Amino acid sequence: MAELKYIEGYPENIRKEIDKVTKTREKRINYTPPAMTMKERDEVLRIHPDYAPGGKRELQVGPNKGNLAPNEVADLLEAYPLIEQDEVNISQVDYDTDILIIGGGLAGTSAALWANDSGIATERILLTNKLRHGDANSIMAEGGTQAADREVDSVMKHYIDTIGGGHFENKPDVARALVEDAPLIMKWLCELGAIFDREEGGDLAEKLAGGLSVKRMHSCRDYTGLEEFRVLRDEFRTREIPYLEHYPAIELLTDGDRVTGAVLWNLETGEYKIVRAKATIIATGGYGRLHIRGFPTTNHYGATFDGVVLAYRVGAKLRDIDAVQYHPTGAAYPIQIVGYLLTEKLRGSGAQPVNADGEAFVYPLEPRDVEASAIIRECYVRNKGIVTPTGLRGVWLDTPLIEIKNGKGYIEKAFPGMIRMYKRYDIDIRKDPVLVFPTLHYQNGGIETDPAGRTNVDGLWVAGEVSGGVHGKNRLMGNSTLDCLVFGRRAGMSTAEYVKAHKGENKIALDHVKRYVKNLEQAGVKCTRRAPIILPDYRGKAALARMIDVF
Amino acid sequence: MNPTNTKETKSTSSGNMKFPYYPGCTLKTTAKNFENSAIATARALGVELLEIPRWNCCGTVFSLAQDDLIHHVASVRNFIRVQEMNDYGLVKNENRLVTLCSMCFNTLKSTNRRMKENAEDLQKINELMYREEDYKGNVEVLHFLELLKSLGYEKIREKVTKPLKDLNIAPYYGCMILRPKEIAIDDPEDPTIQKDILEALGVSVIDTPYKKVCCGSYQTVKDKYIVAELAYDILSHARKKGAEALTTVCPLCAFNLDQRQQAVKEKHPDFEEMPVFYITQLMTIAFGMDKDVFGFEQNYVDPRPLLKSKSLIED
Amino acid sequence: MEDNKSPIMDRIAEANKAATTGIDAKDIENWITIHIMGKAYKVPADLTILTAMEYAGYKFVRGVGCRQGFCGACATVFRKKGDYKLQTGMACQTRAEDGMYLVQIPFTPAEKAIYDVTKEPYEASVFIRYYPEVTRCVSCNTCTKACPQDLEVMDYVQAAIRGDFDGLSDISFDCIQCGLCAMRCPAEIVQYHVAQLGRRMFGRYGLGVPDHLRKRVKEITEGKFTDEMNKLVSCSTEELRKIYTEREKEPE
After folding, report:
1. Scanning A456, B108, C160, C174, which has its CA 20 to 30 A from the CA of C83?
2. What is the radius of gyration, based on Cα positions, of chain A?
3. Contact at CB, C207 and A291, closer than 8 angstroms
4. Of B28, B73, B132, the CB nearest to C162
5. Which CATH superfamily is domain A81-323+444-501 in?
6. Of 1.25.40.10, 3.90.700.10, 2.170.150.40, 3.40.50.1950, which CATH number belongs to A6-50+327-440?
7. Is the overall model pTM greater than 0.90, yes or no?
C-alpha cells in the first residue's frame, strides 16, 4: 500500500475535507443551531447506545435481580469471586483501622481529610489504591467543577439544571446535598490553595457547559481535576495519613450483615493482606475500561467496576446502573488518541460540532446523551461524517472558532493540555478542526446512597462515581468532581461519627461470598468468569496466544 | 521563547533611556527597598531599568576553579537574555546590563570577563546550552553606581530638591565591587564614587579607612559573632569619626552591618545603634520623593528618628 | 432475534476493536522494531510506547495510570538509533519509533516536605526552609529538557528562589508530577514538589477566597435558600419538567 501523505497532521484526503469547514466558518460565527425540544431529544436518544437494542440484559442474582444492566456490567455482577472462604487465612489481621477507604481519587482523598477533620486520628485511617494514589479519573477531569456562587445564580438553578440533565430521575435529597455543598467545597479548595481561573478583579471565572442555564463552571485551565487532586494529595501527605499503593481490594469482609474490612491484594507480589475496619468507604470510581458496547473510553487504566462488584456481593443496592454516559467528543483521529477526552469546555468556549458538509448540525451544549446521539446520527444515519484511515467515523469539532470568539491566544491559555495532546501528532487545534466521536465516559448510576454517603449495608459508605442516584440517568459536566468532593466529605464526616459511636470488637468473615456463590449456582450461572477484573487486558493477540503461565 | 511574553517587563514612561536590568534574588526579597529606591531614582534621572525577562540566579559566587565551568552557566544565561532583549526590541542596541547587588555584580562581571578572554570556555558553555542562542560576548556588566557616575554628578545635583544638609554619613564599599581590581568600579584602594554622589546630595561625607574592610560576608551564616566583631569595628570607628549613619550598595553588607547590630550589642553592651542606608534611599529623600519608596520598614535599625531630627522627613 | 440487534453499534464496536480488545496482527501492515530494556520486539507502527509494549506482551501493573497524559505514571527514558541524546517522555504520549531503545521509570524516590500552608509566611523563605536544595540550582536547564510537558522547569525553580509565587504557579501549572526533572537534576532538587508548595501558597495567599464565594457560603449556612429548596425537592416530576423547560438561559 502506498504510504499516506500527511499535511500538518492529516492525511491528504482528510486535509481536503477541512476546506469545507474553513469555508463555512465565517457564516457559523454568529449562527448557533437551536437547542432541541424535549420531543426532538426523545427522538434522537433512540440511537443512543443505551437505548439502541442489544446492549442490556436482566440481572439474575443479587439485590437488583430483574433490573436491566449493560451486558458487560451483568457479566461482572454474575461472576465468581477471585477467592473463597477456605483459600485465604483471615485470622491474621494485617491492618486494624477505624476507617478503611478503598480508592484514592478526589472522593477517597477528601473522605480521609474530612474524617481526620472530624476527629479521627490520622493513624486510624487507611487509604488503599489499586494503582498509585491519584491514578484515577479525577485527575483527568479537564473542564471543571460546578458551584452556584455568582449573584445571578442560585442553588435552586443548579438543582434544576442537574435534575433536568438527569432526566428527572435523580434522587432528590442527594442531588440537593450536591448543590447546597458546592460553594462550600469551592471555598475549601481555595483555602487549601487550589488555583482556579480568575477574572481580572479576582472573582472566579465561570463558564457555560452542556445543560447549564447559568455560567457556573469553574476551571483550572484544562487541568481542573489534576489541580484539585494534587492539592488534596499534598494536604493528605502533609498530614501523614497512612496509605497503600498497588493494593486493590478484591473482596469485602463482613460480620453478619455489617461490612468490617476488606481483603487487599499486592498487585506486584500477589500476596494478600487483611484489613479490619469499623467503617469502610468505597470510592473506586467507574467502569470505562469495560468498553461497554465496544466503545473506546476516556477513563484511566483501573476503571474496571471493582467497587460495585464487591459491594453487590454484600447486598448493596444499585440504581441507574443501566445509564451509561458517552462523552460526545472523544478523539476519533489520530489512532493513538482514539477515545481520549476533548473537554466540553471547548464547546463551552465556542467550538462547534460540524459535519462533512461544513454544517453546524447540533446545538453545541445539549446534555451529553443528546449531544452524543446527534453525533452518532450524523455519522451513521445521515452519513455526513468523515471516515478516518482506520475506518472510524467522526464529525469535526471546529476549535479555531474559539479564538475568533475569545481572541487570539485564548486556546493556549485555556487549553494547554489539548494543544499539547494534538501537537504531538502535528495538529494545531488553533488552526485546524479536529475529528470527534462519542466515547465511553462515565458511570451515571451505581451503588445507592443517602445524602451522607451511607448505603443500605451497615458499615459501608460510597462516594464519587461508584455511587448512584445523584446524577439520575445522565450527569452534567462539572458535577462529577463536585460529586467526589461533596460526598467524599460527607462520607468522611459520617463515618467519623459512626466510628465514635461504635464500640466493641468486629468479626471478619467471607460468609457473604459463600452465599453469593450459592445464589449464582442456583440461578444457573456457570463459573466461566471471575471478578473483580482489576485491570483490562490490551496485550497483543499474537503474544497472548503463545503465553505460558509458569510462576 | 519570546521574552516579550513575560509579565515582568513592565510598561515604562516614554522618552527615558532604557537599560537591561538584572535584579538578583535578594533584591526581590530582603532588599526590596534597595530595588524600589534605585528604580525610582534612576527614573528621576531619565533612565528606565528594564528587568530582564526570565532571569535566573547569577550563580552567587564566582568559582575560581579552572575546570568548574558549570557554575558560570547561570551568569551566561542572563547575558543571553540581554541579547534577546535587543533581538526583540525591548531595548535598542543596549548591551550594558545594570546590576544593583554587589555580589551579583561581582559574579556576573567576573564570568563575563572569563567568557570574553577565553573563547574555548565560551564555546563549551554555548554547546552545553544548545537550546539557547549562543552568547556572543558583547554584554557589559555595569554597577548602578557606575551608571550614576556616567550620567554625571551635576545631573544628580540638579534633581536635589531637599539637600541632605547636616547629615554626617560614612560611605561603606565592601569588597565585591572593588576586588579583584580587574573588575573594580573604582580605585580599589581609595574609592570615591559614593562620596561624590553623597556630596551631590548635600551630605557631609565622613571618610574612614574601614570603608573597604570586609563585612564578614557569608561567615554570617556560620557564626554571627565573627561578623558582629567586624561590624562593631566598622560602625564604631565611623561613629568615632563623627558619622551618624553608613551607606552601602550591597544587600549582604547591609545585612551584616545592620541586622547584625543585635549580635554586636550582645557582645558590646555599650554599643550605640547606627542606621545603615542603601545610598539610593538617601537619593529618594534628597529628590523629594514620596515616602512610599523609602522602604525604611525593611531597615533593622530604624533611620527615621535621625532623619526626623534633621527635618528631612515628616512623621 | 432481529429487534435485539443494532447494526450501528456493531459497526462502531468493529471499528474500535484495536483500542478496546488488543491488536490483532492480521490487521497491521506497517511494522517497526523497538528495544524494551534491551530486548528487540517487532510491533505495529503507529502506536505509543505504552501500546507498543502491550502489543509485545507486557501487562502493566506499574508505569501506567490514566493513559492520556495526565497522571505522570509512565515516565520513560529512551535513545533513538544514531542519536547520543537521552530523551524523556510519557509512554502513553510518545510515539514508538523504529530503533528506539527504552526503559520506564515508574517511580521517583523523592521526599515531600511536611508543612502546614495555613501557618507558613507568604515569602521566599518557605522554599529555603523546606527545600533548601533549590539554592543549589546552577541554571543548567537539564530539568527543562527532561520535562515531557515542555514546561520551563528551571524558570520556575528560579522563581521559587526569588519568592515569585505568581510566576512559579503560572510556569509550573501544567506539571503532571512525573518526576523526570528530579531524576535528571544534577543539583538533586525535587522540582515538582517545590512547585506544589509554591502553587498552594499562591492559591491560598496570592488569590484567596473571593468575596462572592464567601458571601454565598454565608447565605447557604444562614439558610437563605432552605425554604425554596424544600419546595423544589418536593415538586413532582411534571412540575420540575415545567420549571426546567421554562427556565431562562444566560447568554454566552
Report:
1. C174
2. 23
3. no
4. B28
5. FAD/NAD(P)-binding domain (3.50.50.60)
6. 3.90.700.10
7. yes
